[in-house]
Amino acid sequence: MLKRRAYEQLTQWKQHKTQQGLLVTGARQVGKTTLIRQFGNDHYEQLAELNFIETPPAVEVVNAARDTDDLIMRLSVLCSCEITPGKTLLFLDEIQACQDTLTWLKFLSGAKGLDVIVSGSLLGIDGFNVRSIPVGFLQTIRMYPLDFFEFCHACGMPGSTLDMVQECFNKRTEVPDYLNDRLTDLWYKYLIVGGMPDAVQSFIDSSDVMKVRSIQQNIFDTYEYDITKYVNNLVERRYIKTIYESIPSQLNAENKRFKFSKLDKNARFAHMQTSFDWLANAGIVLPTSRVQDPEYPLLEHADFNTFKLYLNDVGLLTSRLMRSVDLDIINHRSNMNYGSIFENAAAQELFARGFALHYYNQNRIGEVDFVIQHGLDDVSLVEIKSGKDYTRHRAMNNLLKTGNYRFAHAYVFHDGNVETVDGIEYLPIYTIGCLPN
What CATH class is the domain 6-142? Predict the structure, then answer.
């Protein structure tokens, strides 16, 4: 089984919960169901699992329950096992197909003291409505594709070694050459494989990139199927698909800002805003808005009409490019422009660490790839460099020289090792997930 950070969050919930159930959300194919099953088998005498999509009649059976005791009886029949407080983990999956599940949760976990985990995808879209969210009876965690360190662990990298990398980051000391070379090589493999669990497991089992690409194509098809299934308006459906399919070409442009003119010369954000929202709420894309002033709080200075749009998984991005790119990435070809690929992987790492995604761009200053907010009120600049000229960062230099803003750090993540020059912190690209939030 792949080791996931979210497993510790499940363990913390079990240890510290009172009358609270747990909602595990995230995009499709990020490993929610597999992880919850593993957790249930590890920590309970029995796992009572019900999937509302795989068992369509269950929706009607649950919705007809008269009270909590009746509901538990119905769930016991559907799961084919006794549901006993303290001994059973009740796992209700794909709850977007059963609107009343969360409403019942406060009675199952509260009044009856059951350990209940519910999970689903597409919970943020408009088509999912809950009559009564059980305030105080529900914790929520969000799962993501495997981050880079999780990928390294899957590839056999010991946890103690990754701890040493974190220590090098914290102390700003060079990563030993042998380890830096190994992690850099794994980083390039991660650009191809990404973090979708099925793709990672296939790569670990076979090292066959073609098998990985086949799995990624299936995931891409699943996302497009969801658009067709959950979006009834044909015009809206076309907009969503067009936006999703255009992301690789949008990111490949010199200015990675999403340009509506590439979709349709008459397209405007106001016409398509709900389409962008659908993709973001489904966890399929990572919107990165421009901030007009890079100062705390960033949200108040964000222009949500101007943004970059990354895919939720870098492996899905590279799978949409020409097949020759795979060999270029594996061989670390210096003549290839990795800019958009590195940036997508960086956005993925930052998002999984809880950072809101923003960038800065002004004509007289230039563009800084990411502006992040961390600590109580700290704002830092982040540049992502894939080439050997990583010390060239005109926009960051210009912004630092203005003297109008206070920045906690100016980071440049690059294809190299640790060094600090004139207050700029140069760090290996694979350590971006070490940033403290």
Answer: alpha beta
